Protein 1
Amino acid sequence: MKILLRCLLIVVLIYFLPLGYAVTAHYADSDQATDWRTARRDSAGLAPDPAFTDEAVIQVYAARAFRWRGAFGVHTWIAAKPRGASSYTRFEVVGFGVGRGGRAVRVQAGGIADGYWYGAEPSLLRELRGGEEVDALIARLHQAAAEYPYDDQYRVWPGPNSNTFIAYLGRAVPELRLDLPPTAIGKDYLPQGAVFARPPSGQGMQASLGGLLGFIVSPQEGVELNLLGLSAGIDFHPPAIKLPGVGRVGVAEQAQH
């Protein structure tokens, strides 16, 4: 009985106490948008201007989800620009309209690469720049997006959702070395009922039961434990702890590759 109580205490301290703090902080934030029609969607000034940037660019972003969802997690997307292109293409999954037969996958040419997500400021998670090698990765992103198996499905929890899609692209293009934040709920939902796979970074090992229970061991992500879709763990390079709802706490990662 004592062992069970200790285990429950550990779960509360690691998973539900940080989550409670995140929910409280979210609803105490008076600056968050309440109306999606008027919420800010303009550029955050993080993406290089394609008018002055000839090289190929891939960027990965995360921003708090809209309304109550933002208390728990983030929405992630990828923006890419081939060499010489005058605009970016956004790769993301959006649930709006899927229930009425619409497509979940959005590959939008000319989209705002670093736009606020319904009022939430984005963070740059990863960036690659270069020539032919980055152009080749962009072509593979297009191919992987076309092969995503859940284009007709969307489920906030435990997936498949927007983070499931970006994790899928990361596995398909491991050169991105994606280390998605613990707040990217749905990243641990493995496609087509798989139990074992590579993590989104493409390095190490991941096990997951329907996105509800599992783990990641990776030189990129560190060690993560997934409980009911909530991720907690330890990152080693650079050092940090990962907490549900709160995110990564420690030395900031460098977005540039």
Protein 2
Amino acid sequence: MKPPEIKEILDSFVPFDLDEMGNARLMDRIDTKYVLSVRRIPDLLTLMDGQYRILEINSMRIFPYLTTYLDSDDYIFFNQHVTGKLERNKVRYRKYETTGKTFLEIKKRTNKYRTIKWRIRDNLPENGLNDRAIEFIQEHLPYDPLVLGQVLKNSFSRITFAGLDFTERITIDLNLSYSEPYGTVAGIPFLAVVEQKKKGMSLGTPFNTLIKKLSVHPTGFSKYCMGTALLYDLPRKNILKSKMLLINKIENEYNRSVSD
């Protein structure tokens, strides 16, 4: 669900390609997230135009992603996040559908509030992890990879921007939908998740100034945890009640804007 003017505004941005993207990979970074109604994205894009460049691949500027998350039977990664552990992890397979490439990725949040990501090319397995995946997970996490299984799929569309000096990256995720292995589905198409990724906490950028103009404030938001809470009745899902209330507020805001 995207207001039609989003594509029109995106067409006005100066593009960069995958080769240049290497300069903005930021595998060790500070992440800051914002959530807002998708109806407010055109205002955000208008403010960003001229100060950020947009990733373009094969003449496309909005890209479909498919992520498959792994967790244990007792949801150790989900519980790390919702209970506020400073050090927490995610393990996922992410398919970049525009290029057809799939990566096994590990994201680690450190007690210094940094996000570190490692990844290898590897296809999503049908029956358990292969030897290469097991070795990769063992290298970076203190958990037995054999206890991990597929628990959630998440599809979304992403727009990626880079600062003019490539020290910062901004992503906007739209059309979020979830499914679990038994076929239950859920979606939050009215929501946009905006993430700023930069090398240091103190690094001031144009984005920090322009997002304030929209009166949008940072908030912790995990696509994995939210999808898991929407689809599973887990003991600690009530910890996310404030996030659920925020989603309801944004949905009401979206519905009012549509009816106006």
Protein 3
Amino acid sequence: MTYFEGILLAVIQGLTEFLPISSSAHLILLSEFMDSNQNLFYDISLHLGTLMAVCIYFRADLIEMINSVLDHKSLFKNLLLRQLFISCIPTLSFGFILVDLIDGYLRTSTVIATSTIFFGLILFLATYSKSHKTRIEEITLIDALIIGFAQSLALIPGTSRSGITISAGLILGLDSKTASKFSFLMAIPTIGAIASYQLLSSDVEFLIQYFQINLLGLIVSFIIAYATIDFFIRFINRIGFMPFILYRIVLGIVLFSLILS
């Protein structure tokens, strides 16, 4: 992998992790297009970069959760912490069980094209749901579990973790900003678990061998992801989801045309 390829992958990861357009699909397609062999530690670096971005952006919420744990000597007194814990269970469970199936059979252009269009249409339909919950405190634990099951569908490349969780939130009555914020907060335990699993499954010698490019990937993905979160949270009520829905449909159609040509 060249430095140019590494920077490009980091930019794509930072942009697409939190936009409802699927980071896994774009990284798979880009890697295939460039015929690039992406080492496991580079995946870890990109995930750590986006994880740092969301943690720093929502640091006030994280500090409040940490203070709650320290004050009450309990992990589950804080409502948001309970919500996030429950919401990440389905994805981590299904991911652990189905990892070989996903890696072996679902990382294809046909699957990506199909899921890109289908879940784009799901997001389109979700935007017509009536909003009556405007604060994360109004999300029930059942809501969190449902959104968590929706997140597990993002194991399918092309689905988009943020896209499907925002869709579920909208259907459950959350407004756009609340659904987006909760989706981003859900990324913390999810991406953290993915990065930890990859780190434990890899050889530390690769970290030393590819240290410079991995550090570069971490920094670039962090900067781009932080800017993307800030943009999305600030402007989602103004721009809506239609640009991302149209992008997904066009991308899916282009992929199908390439597959059939």
